[in-house]
């Protein structure tokens, strides 16, 4: 018999697309508590069955497949920044590949402005004209207008020129968030993409005799198995440490570890990788919201997926992608790295942002460890001692140095130089994942 949680999910699935849902309504219709209804609705939202929209409520939506993807259009940008269209309305359906912040001289600005991009700039009419002629749309910040000639040019080119009352930095942050949502979220690998399903995994029942553990150990390469009750719910884990010196005829439930660490299908690959390193475990059960076993995910599954991700072409660019693309090892010394500061790596003041600075330090440290064949790192702590302002187009030299290293742990000192002067220094401590 289905649980109340499952009944609510089935009820939500049966509703028409666009149907409005509330906790109180679900609780009344299915005769459940409001707490149970709330948890089920949140689970439905995580599964992509419903969406909560500010000032509207929770709506039943069509579940989107991971591969179904639409790029950001100029019309969506208008909604994101609460803007208005000044000209080029017929081009609102077009998509943009990137956006450029116009916080620089015109000649430098135009080096980065290209067709199908969006220039975010203030009331600089000449910049508006140059961008439109390059095939880029324009978003004017600060609530400013533009000339009638520019509006006519936008109409001719069928490229939107838009205006918003927000400042440049806020607009960039808002659009970057939208690009993350649409370009990046689909690339995130979750446990549901890689786990070994229930019918192909190894497990025990609480009432099994202990000798079943030895049988499974001979069949598989693992020594850690989930333990289920009669309703297929995970109630424990059993490992080689639990069975050591125990009578083989006693029940599994007598020696298992109760309340084990479990994950759900929507748990991210990065979280599972970090947890496996941190807890020192090789297999984790994958369960549904009612704790029923769906399968298991192993350290080997995670490592294979991590290596596969590194070989995948990325459709959308995150800050990490930009950092990775702009950092290269010196030919004469592969433990020293060079990076050039691009406009996407800067803050509202036109200098290298603190977040990108730390990302550069982390990427250089990761590459250093791979050079020494130490494996991949999971950052535990990064302490930055000081950072000096670094301008656009600056070429940085990054020198990471391993201070301590073990099988599962590393401590790295990082120094960042510009023009032979130190502009940043940090200390990174990391857990290591063996390849």
TrEMBL record:
Asked whether the keyword Transcription regulation is assigned, the reply is yes
Which classification does the entry list for the species? Bacteria, Bacillati, Bacillota, Bacilli, Bacillales
Q: What is this protein identified as? A: DRTGG domain-containing protein
SMART domains attached to this UniProt entry:
CBS
Any keyword Signal? no
Q: Which InterPro entries match?
A: CBS_dom, CBS_dom_sf, Diverse_CBS-Domain, DRTGG, HotDog_dom_sf, Ser_kin/Pase_Hpr-like_N_sf, Thioestr_dom, Tscrpt_reg_HTH_GntR
UniProt keywords (A-Z) are:
CBS domain, DNA-binding, Transcription, Transcription regulation
Pfam families of this UniProt entry?
A: 4HBT (PF03061), CBS (PF00571), DRTGG (PF07085), GntR (PF00392)
Residue ranges occupied by any CBS domain in the UniProt entry: 195-253, 256-314
Top-level lineage group: Bacteria
Q: Which organism is it from?
A: Virgibacillus kekensis
